[in-house]
Write a structure and sequence with these properties.
The complex is a heterotrimer of chains A (332), B (516) and C (231). Chain A is 41% helix and 20% strand. Chain A is of the alpha/beta class and 332 residues long. In chain A, helix 7 crosses helix 14 and helix 8 crosses helix 14. In chain B, helix 12 crosses helix 15 and helix 14 crosses helix 19. Chain B is globular and about 70 Å long. Chain B is mainly α. Chain C has 231 residues and is α/β, with parallel strands linked by helices. Helix content of chain C is 35%, strand content 24%. In chain C, helix 3 crosses helix 4 and helix 4 runs parallel beside helix 5. Classes of the chains: A alpha/beta (332), B mainly alpha (516), C alpha/beta (231). Chains in contact: A-B, B-C. At the A-B interface, helix 2, strand 2, helix 4, strand 7 and helix 9 of A face helix 5, helix 10, helix 11, helix 16 and helix 20 of B.
Amino acid sequence: MKHLLFAAGTLLATQAVAETPVLTVYTYDSFVSDWGPGPAVEEAFEKTCGCDLQFVAAGDGAALLSRLRLEGARTKADVVLGLDTNLSAAARETGLFAPHGKSPVVDVPNPFGEAGAWPDETFLPYDWGYFAFVYDKTKLSEVPGSLEELAASDVSIVIQDPRSSTPGLGLLLWIKAVHGDKAEQVWADLADNIVTVTPGWSEAYGLFLEGEADMVLSYTTSPAYHRIAEEDDSKAAAMFPAHYMQIEVAGKVAASDQPELADAFLDFMLSDAFQQVIPTTNWMYPAVMPEGGLPAGFDAPLGTDHALLFAPDEVAATRETALGEWLRALSR
Amino acid sequence: MAARAVPLKPVNAFAWIAVAFVAAAIFVPLAAVFVRADTMVKVLTSDWSALRFTIWQAILSAVFSVGLAIPVARALARRAFPGRGILITLLGAPFILPVIVAVLGLLAVFGRGGLVNQVLGWAGIEPVSIYGLHGVVLAHVFFNLPLATRIILQGWQAIPGERFRLAANLGMSPGQVARVLEWPMLRAVVPGALMVVFAICLSSFAVALTLGGGPRATTVELAIYQAFTFDFDLGRAALLAVVQLVIAGVAAALALWAAVPTGFGAGMDRIVRRWEAESAVLRAGDAVWIGLAALFLLVPLAMIFLNGLKGLAQVPGMVWTATGTSVVIALITTVLVLVLALSLATARRGWAEIVALSGIAVSPLVIGTGLFIMVNPWINPAHLALPVTALVNTLMALPFAMRVIAPEVARIEADYGRLADALGLRGWARMRWLVLPRLRNSLGFSAGLTAALSMGDLGVVALFADPDFATLPLQMYRLMGAYRMEAAAGAGLILLVFSLALFYLFDRGGRGDVDA
Amino acid sequence: MLTLEGVVIRLDGFELQADFQVEEGKRVAVIGPSGAGKSTLLNAIAGFVEPVAGRVLWRGAEMTGSAPGKRPISLLFQDNNLFPHLTVAQNVGLGIHPGLKLTAEEQARVERALARVGLEGMGTRKPGRLSGGQQSRAALARVLVQRNPLILLDEPFSALGPALKVEMLELVQDLAGELGATVLMVSHDPSDMERFADAAILVADGVAAAPVAVAELMENPPPALRDYLGN
């Protein structure tokens, strides 16, 4: 009798689970960690969707795309969240994504479209930021005001490898966008400022905090973390005439068996409930400014005229040329 | 006498199974990546320069690690002093640390704002930079000196005390003892140690890049990473992984060929006193070597410890869950590694050792990708997070366990094989009554090493990531990635303590004089 | 009867021929110059070295090709006769069952054997804590429990003092008598041979000769033995 009851209970439970539709979202590791946006996003979305939102974490953005390519059309993902504009052209080429069919108004200073409009028909932005060199105000007094000034100074920097890290690639494209054909010379001038090149952001930022360099390549929003989470106002981002951007995007998988839920999630992604979590969990600017604005301690973002970005379909070719220049300049 | 040469027995079934298992675990995923690669395989010129740099830094690291380990091991072998056991355990710590923890510890000593440059600054001397090839080698010596020391120390302790008594009786000088007793031992032990360190440094990635100072210090492992994630060129990634394996294989074959069996025979395992080395000069020399090694290895550890203490209070609860996960994986890995290493070692064939050694130079990224390609159509990879992590850790740790266990098994067979044969000790009885008890020291050391390595290994292949399953090093990395450097340092301290505790428990369990 | 039938042993360019029989219950010394192949002969009988030609038979049954542990032979080497990590009783017990699965009766047999060789109450000790003579006695206790009809001794007592060595040889003689066993013993010492052996096999110039009564041999030594004895 006991066994029978138990069996019946299991059956009911399985049925209850089976009746709840599951939305599978592939994302990167830090999105789903306890201190990332994941937990709050999941709770808020599940309140309205009548579904079970499941995150699958797969390393970083680049690893996310690799996984998707390995899985192909058989992927279980309904939505992929965590690519950026450097990866989105390659992601689009896989043919695995469906157009989102939305025309949202976003607060992203978008240099390759009209301000406020979002031209990409496959991917939608959820947050963004500017790359910048971060320093300690109590230690560095003469802060360079541009890439050339930095290269000419004897300020030491730690950067990331463009072959393995997103900020590293960002700097590569930044210098290429500002200096074009002279990029190789700028790298050669920068060579004596570079203490070392790390494989990822964490190592570089760790070295900077240990005092190994005056500046580290990070984001303009990095000082906000120290200000808000640590009540430490000593870190600042050096303001240059223009900064390269990173825009993080999400897209709907064409083979999804939950297309309506996927659409609902993308709508939810641009709503206040999602966007207000972003600044103090992902430490980036929200793609759509939530009603309450930015939390105290966040600087207002620089406007469109300070923003640099290659269009997604230009990235691949530019990256290859720029990488060759980088290798030559720094291998001397 | 010719009768000493005991003919090799046929390879038993366990060894065949173990060889098949390890080979399959390495080569089947590799093949899967090749099959899945749809593009023509091409190698870039930058890959060749990466290869050159990789081999060069690995050779330098191996030579310096082993070269310095010889005097340190000799000093430890012939000096008894209080705290010697603890010191030997602590000296093993750098080897099991996650790379980034160890690098930050090193930087606290040798970095721009580190202790060394502070002292130089007071003396009015220009600061020295750790970044560059010398920094890479320094870090690799930091990681591998302890391992090399332990391997060579074992060689020293394997020389029976009777031989040293005989040498004393014959009035041999330290130089004569070195030539007659120590040199033959080193001839047999050093090639293996060189090979292990070389193979470890071959797959170096984060150390070489972080301390290398720039793209000149690009290693093959980075090229694999780039090919896989940024270019999505599976064929190139797999080909580079094969190149790495082949180099390690050649190194292994060279080392096996160069290693000459010592033929010291058996002694009744008493504590060794060294009459020839009792002069004040030699005592002082040994003290200096031990002191320098201790300073070099322990000061960065102390810095990690101090930095970690500050962050301990900020460590979130999930770090403790992750600690539990890591301990479970470490124990599973240890069991797997010991079973495989014992089976492979009893085969007593060079090729068995080469198969086992492949794991050292195998790229976890490529193996993980291959496994993913194989299982993904059938099973949700997240469900396999634990077995896959344990499997990858096993492949990585097996070569170390083999290096420790295989020579011991060979020695046991040389010394007691005939007696065991005459008594008809075969199969399990031989294992139970001869091999296992005489291997106790080596088994304990291997188990400790494996458990600690597994604890410190980032291991988890991102493709198999399960949100609810995270190892301690992975959580530590995540904390760092979320700006929480102090909490990460705290997690690093927890990792250090648990790894060392596991190592100590296993190693201690194996030690002690079994013959008394 | 131990029979070596046209046996040829070849090792690294060294060759030894043997074609002889040893009667059961005899104690035979194996003598000859150093390096002539005395140990090799024993190793061939024990199964550690396979002859390239010929057969080794015991009581008419062929032993050639069977594993050392399967032959009805107890063997003592020059050294390493005991496992240092096992107790004396365990070392002896291995002679009864290689897996050490001993019944109470068998354990009692081990105790009796230890008592017989004068090691009463020392069963729990490890070999490292015994004297050289006691280690030899422990090895002999194992020979006793093995109850093999053929005992091969490859100079196991050469490290012992003269008095102790005589004591051990007498013990072997007694034990062999009790077991009714045939003994082959490598020896360098003519006085050992005269005291202990009924007959001797001379190993010299690549040939292991048939056993000859010791008295006869000493009275009329062949040239090779004369050279070896040096007088």
